Structure formats: C-alpha cells, structure tokens
Amino acid sequence: MCKWRLIDTGPLEGPANMALDEALLNCFQKDPTRPVLRLYGWNPATLSVGRYQDAAAALNLDLCREEGVPVVRRMTGGGIIYHAAEVTYSVVCSPEHLGDRTGVKDGFRKLCGFLLGTYQRLGLDARFAVDWNPAEERLGERTSFCFAGKEEFDVVVNDRKIGGNAQRRLSGAILQHGSIPLQNRVQQGVRYLKEPAPGAARSVSLSELGHAPEPDDLKRLLAESFQELMSVDLVPEPPTDQEMVTAGKLEEHKYRCPSWTFEGRS
Amino acid sequence: MAKFYTKEHEWVEMAGAQATVGISEHAAHELGDITYVELPKIGKSVKQFDALAAIESVKAASDIYAPVSGKVAEVNQALNDAPELVNQGAESQGWICKLDGVNEAELGALMDAAAYDVYLKGL
C-alpha cells in the first residue's frame, strides 16, 4: 500500500500556512515519491483570496485593516474564504497518485471523496453537488465568495454546501486545499465583501448539523477516511528541514508582501 | 499546417517559423468554465516545456507549458475580457499566444492529432 506523509502543523498565521503549502508542492516536484496530506488551522482568523482575484475589487480592505483581519493570497484558484473555526487540509500529490483519474474533474471527485467519507462517518447524508440535484440547479456559477457558489464536486448536506476546495496544477504535481467548517462564520466573512453574496446564507457548518467535534477528533476522522478512500497508509511526520527553509523564504518574500497579496505579483 | 500536442494538453500550429499555441479542447472541457487567462509578456523567451502562461477555471489554476521554444510575439488580448473564448473554441479563437523563432525539429517531441487521440483514450 502506498505510503503518504501526514503532516499536522496545528494553527498558523495565514502567510505561514500558504507558504508551507507551496513549499510542500515545490519540494514534492523535486521528489515526487512522497505525497502529503497536511492538516492545519488558522490563527488569527484570516481572509484568503484566490490566485487571480482582484482583492481590492472584492474586499473592503479598509474594514479589514480597521478590524485587524489579515488577508492572504492563495496560489490556488477559487473565491474568498474567511478561515475561522475550521479544520483545513492540503493534499500534495502527482496525477498518478490519483490512479487513472488524472483530469481536473475526476481529480476533484477522487480527492474530495475523503471529505464525503468523513461527513458520512459523522452520520451525515453528504453527497457531491452534482449527484444531489443535477437537473435543476446551475452549478459552477462565478462568485467572488467561495461558500456562495457551488461546483460539481463541492460537498453538500441536505442541499447546503459545507466547506470549499481549490486546486493548483503544475506539471506532474497537484496541490488541493480546502476547509471543513466546525462553526458557521460565513456571516462574519461576508461583512468584508464589497458586493453581497446571497448564496452564502445557504452554506452550513458541522455545529449547525448537530456535530461539535474537537479539531483533533475531526482530524482523526479525516485521516481515517483518507486512508480508506485513497487506499493508502498515512505516516505522521513533521515537514523536512528543506520544506521549512523553503516555506520561510516564501513567507518572507511572497506571502507577507503587499505586491503578492493585493496585486498577485511575486 | 497540422497541430501537434503535448502530454500536458497544449497544442501548437506552425506557420513558417511562427507557432500559435493554446490548450486542447480536451483540456478546456476538463477545466470547466475558464475564468482567467494569465497571458505571457510579449518578448518573453521560453524553452520547450517551460511554464508559459496560466489558466484558471472555476476551481483549478493550472500552468500552461510551452510546446516549443521561442519568443512571445503576440498574445490573444481578447482573452483578457472574454476568457470563455477558450471554452468556446480552445483550438481556434481561444488561442493563447504566438511564438517567433521556433525550431520545427522540436515538434518531433510532440504528438500529432492521431497520437494525441490515442493518448487521451489511455488516460
């Protein structure tokens, strides 16, 4: 059975989180034999914007500054996420690690399968949006706020979206990260948007569904589900020295720089 | 002139020493609705299979690699306002850029349309 690394860094600041995800991807490209599942959190609560979003057009940056809410730009696609009261995962692997499902859509289905499995372990009727009501709802509408829109392989419970996921593909390597909301902080997050995001009210969290797992218990469920759905062994280990050095440089020279955060230039 | 394809799903079509480059219909379909294309800078020199541009769909951001070496001579400015052109015609109006100074010998490392079809069936 293929061995994957399980890296649990606990909660970090936004720039450190995004720098480590990119460092894991960069180091994996050089040695694509050791795929990774990383689990983490955010402290303090942070707004992340997608790789190509116009942060100033989508966010009320003055309010963010006034209230001391940090903003960080991801290297992945997708919309704005307010990271608070959530467990976050990232996966770094090659298309080959997803079996023969190397397309973007199939890759999403495969990689998001462990989220479905996790929610089902909690007794929830979780499905992919595309499997819930495929005939009547338009999926994939563009929206600046991640939780306000639904994609085919977003996870829904009772037709309400739970969490969000985004992907970056390089030659021979994939980074996917996403959120599992413990509590619903969407209404706090949408305060920072310039435009209303009506669909956001339809998103849901674990606590609203009657589950209040401790972050460590949720991480254990995620790891169990991942091992089962991906047919892999997870081996807990910390990031390597090389990964930490790379992450430190990326944090200092990219993810803490206004040119990257607000203009997308690195 | 025939198109040639990479394993990463870019296409290239030669006209003299100039190459037009884009992503394949298959790649556009896989990506879903394209929301943004990061075009290369005119004058940028790239080597074969180096990162050339980037493309974002509703969820995934992906690099686009140069199918051949060359210097960027022209970019498809229409994609700035209408990235969906890639969905509407990835191998026609959704082209990404044109490269000058291309060595046709590099096409030998690519697949022709028939070989690319076989490659897609094997995925």
Write a structural description.
The complex is a heterodimer of chains A (about 270) and B (about 120). Chain A is α/β, with parallel strands linked by helices. Chain A has one domain (about 1-265): BirA Bifunctional Protein, domain 2 (2-Layer Sandwich), CATH 3.30.930. Helices cover about 35% and strands about 25% of the residues of chain A. Chain A has helices spanning about 15-30, 55-60, 60-65, 105-120, 130, 185-190, 215-230, 240-255, 260-265; strands at about 1-10, 35-40, 45-50, 70-75, 80-85, 85-95, 125-130, 155, 160, 165-170, 175-180, 230-235. In chain A, helix 1 packs across helix 8 and helix 4 crosses helix 7 (about 215-230). Chain A is globular. In chain A, about 50% of the residues are buried. Chain B is α+β, with helices and mostly antiparallel strands and about 120 residues long. Chain B has a single domain, classed as OB fold (Dihydrolipoamide Acetyltransferase, E2P), CATH 2.40.50.100. Chain B contains four helices and ten strands. In chain B, the strands form two sheets. In chain B, strands 5-8-9-3-2-1-10 form a seven-stranded antiparallel β-sheet. In chain B, strand 1 and strand 2 form a beta hairpin. The longest helix of chain B has 9 residues, at about 115-120. The interface of A and B includes residues 77, 103, 104, 105 and 108 of A.
Q: What does the average pLDDT of chain B come to? A: 94
CATH architecture classification of chain A: 2-Layer Sandwich
Largest sheet of chain A: 6 strands, mixed
CATH class of chain B: Mainly Beta
Query: What is the number of domains of chain A?
Result: 1
Measured by DSSP, the beta-strand proportion of chain A falls in: 15-25%
CATH topological fold name of chain A = BirA Bifunctional Protein, domain 2
Q: Whole-Å distance between the termini of chain B?
A: 27 Å
Structural classification of chain A: alpha/beta
Question: Which geometry of chain B do the CA atoms define?
Answer: globular
The secondary-structure element order of chain B is: EEEHEEEEEHHEEH
The number of helical segments of chain A is 9
CATH superfamily of chain B: RNA polymerase II/Efflux pump adaptor protein, barrel-sandwich hybrid domain
Structural class from helices and strands of chain B? alpha+beta
Low-confidence stretches of chain B: none
Indicate the CATH architecture of chain B.
Beta Barrel
Query: Helical stretch count of chain B?
Result: 4
Strand order of the largest sheet of chain A: 10-11-6-2-1-12
